[in-house]
Amino acid sequence: MVLVKNILATANLSISKDSTISDAIKFLNSSTEEAVVIVDEYTYEPICIFTERDLIKIIKNKIDLDTPVINISKKNIITINHNRTIEYALSVLIDNGIRRVVAVDDDNKFLGIVSQKHIITHLEEESFTTNLLVSNIISQKSELVTLNIKQSINDAISSMADNDISSVVILDEFNNAVDIFTEKKVIDITNQNISLDTSLKDVCSFDLISVNSDDSLKDVVEMMSLNDNSIVIVLDKEKKPLSVLTTRDIAYNIKGNYNKFLENRLKGVKNTLNYIGELIIEVCNDNNAQIIQWINEASINRFSSHIIDKPVKTLLGDDIWNEVYSYIKENGQCTKKKIQIEEYFYEMLCSYHIIGKKETILLILRDITDYENRVNCEVQKRQEQEKELKLLQNVINQQSSIIIVTDGSKIYMVNKTFLDFYDVKDKEEFENKYLCICHTFVSHPAFFYLEDKSKNWIEEIGKLQEKDRVVSIINLKTVEPKAFSIQVNQLLPNSNRYVVTLTDITDIKLESQQHYYHATHDVLTKIYNRAFFLDKLNDEITYSSRYKAPFSFVIFDIDHFKRFNDTYGHLKGDEVLINVADVVQKNIRKTDVFARWGGEEFVILLPNTTIEKAEILAQNLRSLIEDIKLDGIGTITASFGISEYTHLDEEKTLIQRADEALYKAKKEGRNKVVSYTK
User: Fold this and answer.
1) How far is residue 61's CA from residue 162's CA, in Å, rounded to a whole number?
2) Phi, psi of 671, rounded to the nearest 5 degrees
3) Using a CB cutoff of 8 Å and minimum separation of 24, what contacts does 330-339 make?
4) Interior CA angle at 331 toward 330 and 334, to 5°?
5) 60-99: pLDDT as tens digits
6) Model-level pTM?
7) CATH fold for domain 132-258
8) Contact 163, 244 (CB under 8 A)
9) Superfamily of segment(s) 277-367
10) In angstroms, what CA-CA distances link 280 with 172, 261, 302, 339?
11) Is 133:220 a contact under the CB 8 Å cutoff?
């Protein structure tokens, strides 16, 4: 058995898709073939084919040779695997009306070209048993196209393009054939930049190969093979040109006698079919009954040989066979028909043939039982999942918390509480109103809020500590802000979907805020208390020691405060404290920490502030306190002590220095600002 890979041509046959027509012509000139294949330079898969016939049209239409060859090679390329037989290749060529076919490997990578001239020289003797003569072939051909030797190359190219032929015969002044002007000749002329106005006489080779009309076709094939020629001229008895004979003409006539050749090979083919995995069944018509005539080894192993000589209906069932038989008689074939025989599932391919008067049907059954079982298993699993999903939906609908399944962008499931809260009938209506649930979060310092909407809010909130995973959302029904704690759990391992639970903690949050406020603020003045201040002071010491940032500590108390209490009573004393705290709070920065230290003493933490700047601030506050006017009370003054943090400081030493400065301010007459300096 001769395979395509045994005879294919491989040298100088491929170019990349960015090549020009000129590049293609150079390849054609150096090749023994009449075509070049354009391939993808990365995958090496064939894209299209450029032939000598294309060049004829290019020259006639005066197309620029620098044009990319892929722009004009629009032919649908036909490929075959290199392991195919040459008999199969011949059928492909003839059935598709082409002169050559592209051979590829199992990965569809280009290997070479197989043409009719390669095939007919390798076909077995049976192909020529009819002893055809040359006259039997040329009697079916159209009239010979000739030109006078004095005409130009341009005349020849135009004649070939207009008649869509591969050659013209050149005659001398006595009408004798002197040469055949072929597409190959055009390649040579183009490469040599010969003017198209040149006379044919100047480019003729005068090495004409001729045969007689009564020569044996087999002898002609041998001669063409010996001379590596794909075209000869046929002369009549007077040695005048009668026709041209090409390998394509010979191939078409071999096809006409091919059935007998196939019959001679059928037994060998069937032996080959015994070694493939698919189940193959040959069905023949006998007295209007479709009988199983032959099966391969795979079919014997599955069904046993007892099905031979039995109606095919007994195997496939009446309904299936009647449907398939009716279809293939009308269409010639049937592909990928799914059937079941006993516990097995098959994908069936059928082809219908009439050989002579004999009706033959070939069935190929591909076992897809494992696949079908997997599909059925998946269907069953999906049905079970749908039941579980329905049960899950019922369960989450009973929850008072908002529950959603999301990937951080798209929402896949919601519960009834979600729909009620957002006042929508389903998740689709919600998604039409909002791109994402995170778009409903209220921007507030005390709650999580996604500033950059291009980020995944699930991933961002997951970076926070669990206690900080709290959002605020407006209840559209009551137009009240609600606080929700968020719990995120992965739906499945390695899944990008999450079950998100939003629990309403509005009341808890308010209560917690109240507790926090009372724990950190002074009840009378509503400013921070000593405990909160000391926490902030320790944080600032840690930060400053790490980043070498300056900060200052200010302590002040109200001068002669005991006199206010003794003279005006404790209520007036409280009023003084409240007013002093209010004035200071309004005249410091948001980053500054102001607290009641105890009694009539107050402290201020000034981040990123040197002692010089702290003194300026303290002087301003001293003046503002002095300007406070309260009914029935005289002038209010305060004394200030300031210290600046050094890298040797701890909480105690920093406070102690400021306290010493305050003591000095009081000793020097009060209503003063004193900074501690060494």
Assistant:
1) 11
2) 50, 45
3) 338/368, 338/372, 339/365
4) 120
5) 888 888 999 888 875 567 787 888 777 667 766 764 567 7
6) 0.36
7) CBS-domain (3.10.580)
8) no
9) PAS domain (3.30.450.20)
10) 61, 22, 11, 15
11) no
